[in-house]
Amino acid sequence: MVLRGYVPTSEETLQTLAALRLQSLNSDFSTHAPFPRLEELFPPHVLHARLPPLPHRPPAKCRGARLRAGLLAGGLWGQALAKQRAERDQRLRGRLREEGASTMAAIVEKWKLLQGMGRPEAMAAYVALVREWPGFGSTLFDVDLHASPVGPGPQRLWLGIGAKAVSLYKPGEREPLDSFCYGRISSFGASDSSTFRLSVEDRDLLFETSQVDEIAQLLNTYLASASAQRLPRPQEPPTSPPTLEPTVLPQGLCPAPEPWHHRPPVGSSHS
Question: Would you list the domain boundaries of the chain?
Answer without folding.
Answer: 2-51+88-132, 139-230
